[in-house]
Amino acid sequence: MTSDDLLAALRDHLPARDILTAADDMQPFLKDWRHMFHGAALCVALPRSTADVQQIVRLCAQAGVAIVPQGGNTGLAGGATPDASGRSVVLSLSRMNRIVAIDRTGLTVTAEAGVILDTLRAALAEMQRDLPISFGASGSATLGGILATNAGGANVLRSGMAGRMVLGLEVVLADGSVVSELSGLHKDNSGLNWMQLFVGSEGSLGIITQAVMRIETLRPYSATALLALPSAGAALGLYTRAVDGIGDRLAAFEIMSRDAIERVEKAFDLKCPVEKDAWLVLMEASSTSVHLEDDFNAFMEGAFESGLLADGAIAANQSQRQAFWRLRESLTEAEALSGRSVKHDISVPVSRMADFLARGDAVLADVARQTGAVLNPHVFGHIGDGNLHYNILCDRHEAAGAINRAVHDLVIACGGSITAEHGVGQYRLSEVYRLAPPARLALQERIKAALDPDTILNPGKLIRGARP
Ligand code: FAD
Ligand code: MLT
Ligand code: ZN
């Protein structure tokens, strides 16, 4: 089947408005959020149902044309951007965005893959329920993309990664068949836990069309503090106290370097309300109990007395709370506006974070010496998960590879992972193949070969596979 035959067949099955071929219409789907990756495509297909997705997949498989699944296109690893060949079909799930059912008693929500996280959480909040996933791109990221990347964010220390909340999944496989288990059982050991195979699979094993997620009772009370600390060690000390003192009410514990916050202040004309020190921590607790505020204030009093804090402020109301979070959630955009940056999404055991940061300074000084590049760290992250965005602003594009390799080597030496939450996509593929255990890579290749023998689904991302 030629490309023209495929387009004609797609147009036979879907209305013309659901198949985009004009350059201007396709353009937003062909580059990633950071504008780091640019691709081309035969068309962008916008299915409205699982049956549409099956039809598109069958036709592409017949034509031997690759499919690049896409949700909100906010991923940070280039996973949703097609290659430059112009032979792929981008399959956007954005029109499959229905919330199918909310079960307040069974604590589940069933939704199509294209539903946007903020929309889903707002619908749940109206019923005093919540899906505790929170990060800066929540106004665009979709449920399918979140599961396909196994997204993390600020609430992981309490609720785990997105994949931990999956109770049901519907997936279209590379041959167009569908596996659909959407009853949302909390307990089901009648077979392999196959759904987890698709969590974090970045569109390379199947296309997620619907999911059932475990939800929880909305926690209407929250308490939030923005704190300045002189060292990463002090921040870890405070985190230990918070785990003991706040327990499972601790919802977020985010760390931000002074330099990074100063870039946010400059880029968005914002003012950090505390006297800054080397690090800032944004700490939040949430609860269904009205007593949270008293307990949180008592905890903060003890923290100030401990001498760990240089300065701090507790949000007095929702608008102050939002202002604290605005500083945190503007870090990625401020970084993008500050010039070229080399991104890292690393994790190390929490106990080794201060060690990693100290050794990181020496590693960066070495790379700067060897490459002649000027390096300015823009570091922040989710300290409770050992996950740092150890991002480096760099004036020389050619130094990026050396920076990546040096940082990743240190991560491995510290017993860590080179991608904690953003995934591999195309951005980290070569580094993963350089550093991951060979047995894991071989297993992944075997799974890919079994599920997608013709490498139709998202080639060149996550798993190399073989393109026949
Ligand atoms: P896309 O970007 O469209 O796709 C991501 C990957 O999933 C691609 O490989 C794509 O092929 C695949 N995919 C998408 N939909 C499907 C589907 N239905 N079936 C199969 N495969 C699919 N991530 C975090 O983990 N934590 C953070 O704190 C965080 N903060 C962020 C802040 C900002 C400002 C931005 C821009 C991004 C952030 N991210 C964060 C990145 C995050 O991974 C994505 O935002 C989100 O998980 C991806 O959802 P999406 O719908 O945009 O997916
Ligand atoms: C975050 O924690 O804000 C993100 O994962 C985004 C980033 O790394 O820039
Ligand atoms: Zn993050």
Query: How much helicity do the residues have?
Result: 25-40%
Residue runs with pLDDT of under 50 for 5 or more positions = none
Each distinct ligand: flavin-adenine dinucleotide, D-malate, zinc ion
CATH class of the largest domain: Alpha Beta
What is the CATH architecture descriptor of the largest domain? 2-Layer Sandwich
Number of strands: 19
- Count of all domains: 4
Largest sheet: 8 strands, antiparallel
**Helix run count:** 16
Question: Descriptors for this entry?
Answer:
binds D-malate; Alpha-Beta Plaits; 468 residues; binds flavin-adenine dinucleotide; five-stranded antiparallel sheet; 19 strands; Uridine Diphospho-n-acetylenolpyruvylglucosamine Reductase, domain 2; Uridine Diphospho-n-acetylenolpyruvylglucosamine Reductase, domain 3; single chain
In short, what is this structure?
The chain is of the alpha+beta class and 468 residues long. Helices cover 35% and strands 21% of the residues.
Describe the overall structure:
The protein is of the alpha+beta class and 468 residues long. It folds into four domains: 3-95, Uridine Diphospho-n-acetylenolpyruvylglucosamine Reductase, domain 2 (2-Layer Sandwich); 99-217, 2-Layer Sandwich (Uridine Diphospho-n-acetylenolpyruvylglucosamine Reductase, domain 3); 221-332, Alpha-Beta Plaits (2-Layer Sandwich); 339-421, Alpha-Beta Plaits, CATH 3.30.70.2740. The protein contains 16 helices and 19 strands. The chain has helices at 3-13, 23-26, 50-63, 117-126, 143-149, 156-159, 195-198, 232-245, 258-268, 292-305, 318-329, 331-337, 353-371, 400-413, 429-435, 438-451; strands spanning 19-20, 43-45, 67-70, 89-92, 99-103, 108-112, 129-130, 166-172, 178-181, 207-214, 216-217, 221-229, 250-257, 279-287, 311-314, 341-342, 346-347, 375-382, 387-394. The strands form four sheets. Strands 12, 13, 14, 15, 16, 17, 18 and 19 form an eight-stranded antiparallel β-sheet that branches. Strands 5-6-10-8-9 form a five-stranded antiparallel β-sheet. Strand 5 (99-103) and strand 6 (108-112) form a beta hairpin. Helix 1 (3-13) runs antiparallel to helix 3 (50-63), helix 9 (258-268) crosses helix 12 and helix 13 (353-371) packs antiparallel against helix 14. It is globular, with a radius of gyration of 23 Å. The two termini are 16 Å apart. The mean pLDDT is 97. Bound molecules: flavin-adenine dinucleotide, D-malate and zinc ion. The site of flavin-adenine dinucleotide has 37 residues, from strand 3, helix 5 and strand 10.
